[in-house]
Amino acid sequence: MNYYIAMAEKQEIFTLMGGKVNIFRGTYNPTSDAVWLAAFAPNNLKTVLDVGIGTGAVSLCMLAHNPKLEITGLDKNPVMLQECQNNAQLNKRTITLVESDISKWKTDKTFDLVVTNPPYFKGTPAKHDAHHNVNLQLWVKKCIARIKPRGYFCIITDALAVGEIISEINNHCGDITILLLFGSKNTAERVLIKARLASKGGSVIYSGLSMNYEPVLRDGLTIDSVLSRLS
Question: Residue 5: pLDDT band by 50, 70, 90 thresholds?
Answer without folding.
Answer: very low
